[in-house]
């Protein structure tokens, strides 16, 4: 290429200095770009890891909560079974108590009826009475006493 007359010729040292300066600028630019890229990648990886950890912690929390709720449901179910069992036992006890009371009432009614028959006929029949003796209990007049006569209601005035 031919040179134009108005162009100044640069010295080799100036060209070398400009070339070195451009080379240093390019190297600094590349290093800065690499630093930005590394920082960006680290930041991205950190956020990705944080996001994954957050999702994992939410899943773990949900799992623990589900286990807790399941255990509460199991406790509730067992409590309901136990309450039902207790209720059935109480109802059976009440039924047995009513049946026993009915039998005792029947026995008492039978004895009272038997005593009424004995009292009206004048004969003393043995009874299944539990008491101080096996004889029919009689009052002072020699008449068989009712059980109501034997009950002490306290001092009379």
Largest sheet: none
Helix content: over 70%
Low-confidence stretches: none
The string of secondary-structure elements, in order, is HH
Number of helices: 2
Radius of gyration: 56 Å
> What spatial form do the alpha-carbon principal axes imply?
rod-shaped
Helix-strand category: mainly alpha
Number of strands: 0
Strand content: under 5%
The CA-CA distance between the termini, in Å, is: 155 Å
Q: Roughly what is the average pLDDT, rounded to an integer?
A: 84
Give a short summary of the structure.
It contains two helices and no strands. It has helices at residues 12-121, 147-150.
Description:
By secondary structure, this protein is mostly helical. It has a domain at 17-120. 73% of the residues lie in helices and 0% in strands. The protein is built from two helices and no strands. It has helices at residues 12-121, 147-150. The relative contact order is 0.03. Residues 91-157 are annotated as: Disordered. Residues 93-118 have a biased composition (Basic and acidic residues). Pfam families: CCDC50_N.
